[in-house]
Structure formats: structure tokens, C-alpha cells
Queue: 2 jobs
Job 1
Amino acid sequence: KQPNAVQLKEVGPRDGLQNEKAIITTENKIELINRLSDTGLDYIEVSSFVHPKWIPQLTDAVDVLKGIDRKPGITYAALVPNLKGLERALDADIDEVSVFMSASEGHNKENINKTIAETFPVLREVVQAARAAGKTVRGYISTVVACPYDGYTEPSQVKYVADHLFDMGVQEISLGDTIGVAVPTQVERLLDELLKHYKPEHLAMHFHDTHGTAISNIVASLPYGITRFDSAIGGLGGCPYAKGASGNVATEDVLYLFDTMGIETGVDMQKLLHASQFMEQQMKRPLTSKQMAVFRGE
Ligand code: HMG
Ligand code: MG
């Protein structure tokens, strides 16, 4: 079973840049987002309103949001961990708020300094206030297949967290293979369980590509009716609180897959590659995507 169209959700300016050693200037982040806005993407996660000490790369979230040229029809989103972050996100007039937590205790504690049970009331306040302010809300669940601290994650644990997030008023859940270890059989086991309870249009897949399995995991998700996939330009990034996590699957590699399968995305490959090339110049290193290697003529 193959969908006619899918949505690519670009997370490079957030998930990509949060884990890169190089600090990109605010001006260059704005340039990157403006270039991405011109590729046909209709969803861009631009930054994070987290504690500046935890993620020093993204302290300029308000300036980035206020500096970009917002194109009609594009949703500009950001991560928000608590009410303090929401205040800044609303000040910058974010379109969509993304709350986040993990399916495993170990990663949740390392990443947001709370147990899973302590996290629910904090996120509930954020979701309710964001919805009251007229924003849509996305929820991330990290470590859905494995945790760098606790080992493998049972699908029932993911369902337990998802039930709480949907109950709070989250409209879509993005399922994160934070450390990029999943293989298709594990994705199938997870989706076999979750789709007994939820509709595929309320789920998105968020694959990191540490072991080179992200594209096969995306292909494995298609028969379940999933049509939303997170990816990062150039394959930038990772998670700073998950050792060994490498970048997200690269947007241009996901686009190659869908273009070649004849599945509509609305995204222009040449414009995407030029945005990726711009980031290579800023990072002063070749980016890891396969399509960039082809583009460079390697
Ligand atoms: P904490 O230290 O427990 O927070 O951090 P707290 O509530 O105890 O507050 C301590 C101080 O921080 C206070 O200041 C607060 O005001 C301040 P003080 O009174 O001491 O002067 N503070 C803030 N300042 C600015 N903005 C805020 C904020 N909140 C509190 N929002 C917290 C808890 C959640 C804030 C912290 O742990 C944090 O910021 N963590 C973020 C970690 C992060 O961003 N990780 C990466 C994103 S998740 C990811 O990458 C996975 C994903 O891609 C999916 C996947 O791949 O799986 C989404
Ligand atoms: Mg991630």
C-alpha cells in the first residue's frame, strides 16, 4: 500500500542545529529558514524555547522567529518544555507548539530533569495554555524503540505516554527513534500496537540515521497509512542528551525516496540541495546526506 502524497516536516533548524558544535549566527539561521521556506516545504521547526544553559545553540529563538519572512501556508513550529518557554514562544507568535518527553525514564530524566510522572502535569499546563491561545500542539515521544540508558522500550510504554499526551489535547504525536537504532521489524511491532488505538493521521515518524536504517524504517511505516515524516536538511544534528545519537534522516534523501516512488511532497529537490549547500558553507564541513554526496559529484 502506497499513499499518493506525504508531508515532510523539516526539523533541521531545531533538531539539526541543537547538537552541532558550530554555533550558527542568528542571521544565518534566518537565511536557512528563508531558503527552506522557498523549497515547497509547508512545515518548519525553527527553534526551541528551552533553558539556554541546556541548549546554548538555540538561545536566539525569539530573534530567529521575529527575523524570518513568514510565508503563508507554512507552519512555523518550536519546542516548548514548560510555561516559561511558552511565554517566549507566544511572544514570538509561534504557529505550532511542540511539547516533548520520552517513553523511557532514563532519557526523560537526562533530557528534561523529571520523571515521566512529574512531566505529565507540566506538559498539560503548556498544552492547555497553547490551545487556549489558538495554537495547534504537537507532542514528541522520544526513545520509542530504545533508550541509551534503559535499553529497549516496550510498545506498551509508548502507548502509555501517548494516551496521556492525546488526553491533554495534543493533536499529533511524533514518534522518535532518538538514537537511530531501530530496524523495520521494530517499527512494525510498535505500529502494530499503536494503530490498534490511534489513527495514522495523528502520528508522525521521526527517525535518526545512526545505523543507516532510517529510510527503510520510513518505507516500513507506509503500509500503516502514516504520511508525516520528520527530517533535517543535510542530515544535521542529533540529541545532546542521548550519547551516540547522530543526525536526523536527511530531508533530501527522504525526498529522493518519495520522488522516485512517485509519491507527492510538493518539495523541490534543486532548491533543497542549494539550502543544504548553504549549510555546508556555514558548518565548514560536508553534510552527510547521500544526495549531497551525489550533488558534490563524489
Ligand atoms: P530545570 O533546571 O529542571 O528547570 O530544567 P526548572 O523548572 O527547575 O527551572 C530552573 C531555572 O531554569 C529557573 O531559573 C527557570 O526560570 C529557568 P532560576 O529561577 O533558577 O533563575 N527555566 C527556563 N529558562 C528559559 N526558558 C525555559 C525555562 N525553563 C526553566 N523554558 C528544563 C527543565 C525542561 C527547562 C530543561 O531540562 C531543558 O531546557 N531541557 C531541554 C533539553 C532539550 O532541549 N533537549 C533536546 C530536545 S528533545 C530531542 O531532541 C528529541 C526529539 O528530537 C525527538 C527524538 O529525536 O526523540 C524532540
Ligand atoms: Mg530528534
Note: The radius of gyration is 17 Å.
Job 2
Amino acid sequence: VVLVVDFGAQYAQLIARRVREARVYSEIVPSTMPVAEMLAKNPRAIILSGGPSSVYAEGAPTLDRALFEAGVPVFGMCYGFQLMATTLGGTVDDNGAREYGRTALSVSKSGSTLFEGTPGEQSVWMSHGDACSAAPEGFTVTASTDVVPVAAFENDEKKLYGVQYHPEVMHSTYGQQVLEHFLYRGAGIEPKWTTTNVVEEQIALIREQVGTKRAICGLSGGVDSAVAAALVQKAIGSQLTCVYVDHGLMRKGETEQVEKDFVAATGVKLRVVDAEKRFLDALAGVSDPEQKRKIIGREFIRVFEQAQAEIVAEAAGGEDVAFLVQGTLYPDVVESGGGTGTANIKSHHNVGGLPEDIEFKLVEPLRQLFKDEVRMVGQELGLPEEIVQRQPFPGPGLGIRIVGEVTKERLDLLREADAIAREELTAAGLDRDIWQCPVVLLADVRSVGVQGDGRTYGHPIVLRPVSSEDAMTADWSRLPYETLAKISTRITNEVADVNRVVLDVTSKPPGTIEWE
Ligand code: XMP
């Protein structure tokens, strides 16, 4: 394993992903973890991430010198670089040399381990106030910029390396290459990690954990729960039962996709609960977004618990059903501070989230994986492309894409409009370019239009295509006008009561991706 020591900010996750892209397994640990504990994990290499502090700020995270003396190769980036410099006797000061954003880097020693085979001048992404003015003893300075004399250094003998910039961001042109040089050449690691290893390892682990007992899995139609279920199914076969709650807020064809395609690909035992009426009754008369979310979440848990209880009751020995499968991903684990001690950034409440008095033990086979890796695992398990490449869709479904009260008629109308938008985006080959494209019905708004020879008084549909890496921030997608035109024409022609299509051109922040 390669450990990525997290000094705050959001860099550590990106670094861990880049290491895995280099086919080396990585894990994130908090900078507060004692060095002895880090070393006990037997890391092949350690990477120190960037962070928001100045090394001289009061309470800034520090690092025990022992880390650099254990014979484990270390690569410091940005804050990690400065910490390495000061800990080992170099000089970092605030000489007014601030650099933010794209910066030209001059590589002064082309024979270096990190920069071998990369150009003497390269574009890198900087973000720092303090700067290193003298490298520690025994280190060679390998790069500089106009304002920073020491922008990279290395001590090849001790296997210690550092760069002032962020090689993990895509704006650092040779960043991935430099990282790979550290891993392969500096640390001597062979790139062998693949998702095939994960599948085999997880299947063995699940079998060991579950034994002869039974497990239940809630399927939402999303990628994560589908891949988790397929993996568990492969491990324990008919000991698994999946429950899919159809709350009537799904998009067109979604329930059928789970009922047919997913079952066909996995052979899973599936129980579909038709709860449309129950959800719509509970939502009647409600327009407030938060209230809608609460109602949907509450009803979902009730229906799911009831299905669980039925499955337990039907099982010969009820206590047999002891496990609940969850599609928890690595970012969820890191962000909720699970096991790593990092700050709680965002607790995402999923519909289907666990009631507090849960009596099941959890099976979470995707806990180590990033989203793109989950997709690869899904592919390996033979899941259909439509499931594996599915864009994110919120648990409360179309219920939070109707601004106003949720009714069956409005849902049907939105389902049509959404299906048209998805069809045209797919036809234009744009699915991979956008993160997701919520289609929103402004049910409480009406505007005047003219269709045929008559006046209409209909509702607008909003298109909200966004690009994003992690949904925490997003930008609106610059879709081709022809595609927008086609979607607009088809929706206004084919969907009754819609006489206007508008495009949302707001980034996140300030606007969230969903409208509610
Ligand atoms: P926002 O609207 O907060 O959405 O910018 C960020 C991402 O999360 C999805 N989303 C949800 N997913 N349950 C979910 O499983 C929810 O309650 C929920 N609310 C928003 C949204 O589609 C986007 O991908």
C-alpha cells in the first residue's frame, strides 16, 4: 500500500486516485496519525499532501522526523514539500513570493528521478504563499520558477522527493508522469493493482464474513448499490435477496431496467415493492423541498423495513438473515471520517439510509473504491452498460425535480420530458461529457405561448446539464446548440402542457445541481 497523508483541504483524495490510476493501491491517512501507526501498515511509499496552512502558522499540522528516517520513500507535495523541507533543516519563509494557478516551472536537473524524460520547461499548478529558499542538506534542487528558487528537490540516496506544486491536478502537464516516476523509479513499486484483484479479494472476504447466513440489499437503480449487490451475489448466490422500492418517482424505464436487465445479468433474487400510491399519498399537498425529502426518506425506510421483516419472517430460521449490503464508497468513508479521523465534510443522506436501531451487520464491499473503479468492477461482473455508466440520480428521484406539489400527472409529464432529453443527449454522444442533466418541471409557473393557431398557457421545463468531478462543485455544460434545439423542439411538441424549455446556466456554487 502507498499511504497518502492528508494535511487537510481536498487534495488527498485526488492524489490517492492518481496513485491508483498508476495501478498502485493507495489509502488516505490523517496527518494526526502517529508515525509508528503509519509505519505499522508497512507502506511501500508515503505521499504527503498539500494543505491550507502555512508551516509556521500556529497549530499547523507537523510531522515526526522519524517518518523520514524509516527508509520508506517519501514524496512531499506543496504543504507536504514545505514540511519536509523545514523538518529536515531547509528554509521556508514568506518572501512575498505568492503563486496561484498555472505557473512555468524550469527543471534544472534533467537527470533527476522525478523529472526524467520530461521537458525543461513545463506548466504546473501552484497554490502557495510561503516558499522554500534553501533545500535541506543532502538534497539536490531539481526545479525552480521565476519567484521560487527551490520548487523541487530530491535526495535519491534516502529516497526523499518533493515538489512545491500540485502534480495531482490536471493542469500540471507532466504531473502524472512525475508521480509515476516517484512510484516506479523512486520507490521501486511495480504497477500491478487492478480491479480484478478487488473482485477476487472481496468475494473471498464476503464469503468469510457472511458464512451460511443470509443477506439483504436495497437496490436503488444506481451504480453503487447495483455493483455491490452483483458482487455479493457472485460471492454468496441465493443467500442474497435484493429489495427494490418503486416509489413512483423513478424515471421512465428505470424500474424495468432493474427488474429485467439487472436480474438477467446477475441472476439475483429480487423483490420489487410497488409503493407508488403510498408515496404519492404522503406527498399530496406538499410543495416545500425539505418537507418532500423528509417524507420520501421516511416512507422509504418504512417500506424497506417492512420488506426486510417479511423476508426475515419467510426465512426458515429468521435470525439467519443477519447482513445488510450497502454500496458505501471510499469518498463516503473518507468524508464521514470513517477510520481515518479526517474532518466530517458532508454527511450525505441517502434515501434508504439506515434507521438508527439497525440490527443487521453491514457488508460494504466497495468501501475501498472510487466511483470510476466501481464502474470497472461492474463491467468486470458483466453488468449492462446502461447500469454501469449511469449518471447520478438522487434518491428522492423526480419528487425533487417538480417545483411545486408532486402529482401523478406531473410526474408522467416530467418523465416524458426527461426521457426525451436523455435520448437526445445519448444520440449526440454527450453522455460521457456531462456529469448529469437534471430535467426540472416548474409546475407552479405558467407562461403564455402559441401553438398551432391557439394560445397556450403551459409550464416551463428546465434543463440543468452540468460537468463535475465529484458533485461538490459543478459548472454548467456548454452543450451544442443543435442538441439543445432538438431537445427543446421535441419536448414542446411531444409533451402536453409544456410550452417552453429553458437552460440553467448557473455554476455550483452558487446554485446546487438539483433545484430542490
Ligand atoms: P446538489 O443538488 O446538492 O447535488 O448539488 C449533488 C449531487 O447529489 C445528488 N443528490 C442526491 N443523491 N440523495 C441522493 O442519493 C439525495 O437526497 C440527493 N440530493 C442530491 C444530486 O443528483 C447530485 O448528483
Note: The pocket of xanthosine-5'-monophosphate is lined by residues 349-351, 392, 394-396, 436, 471, 508, 512-514 (CB under 6 Å).
